[in-house]
Amino acid sequence: MEQEQFIREIVPLRESLLVYAGRLMQGGEEDAEDVVQEVLLKLWDMRRELLRYENIRGLAFRITKHLCINRLKVRERYEEAPKEWITTGEVASPYRLLEQKDQVEHLGQIIDRLPALQQAVLKMKHIDGLEVEEITRITGCTAEAIRANLSRARKKVKELFFSLDTL
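Above: the chain sequence. Below: its structure as tokens.
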């Protein structure tokens, strides 16, 4: 799909996706806007494969749904964390919070260094929460290829995360 066709067919979905994401995100307009931007970016990255799909609109809404669900899960975990610390008596120190933030940033930098396919598959699986079957439909790769790329990506992330050279 070329840029003109993408603009003609995909970009007009933006408003519908925004309304849908807004409902799923329970009124979080900024989160809904972020989700829709991410959906459009994913669709742009997939533009060469989009013609294989019979229902691109349905695909866009499915991606939106999964991204919203993942954001709600993250939000829920984030909001519940202090309650867990209180009930267990464990309090996160500012030092520990800073250390965790640094680790997340470090992990992001490592993921950005992976080959494009491994990076995309890893993000779809662990950030977007997609199952291998869904990733195969989106990417057009076989399930075995997806699993192999996930395995290589995880191994490389683990290797780089714990090596002193990447610090």
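Residues 56-88 form the longest helix (33 residues).
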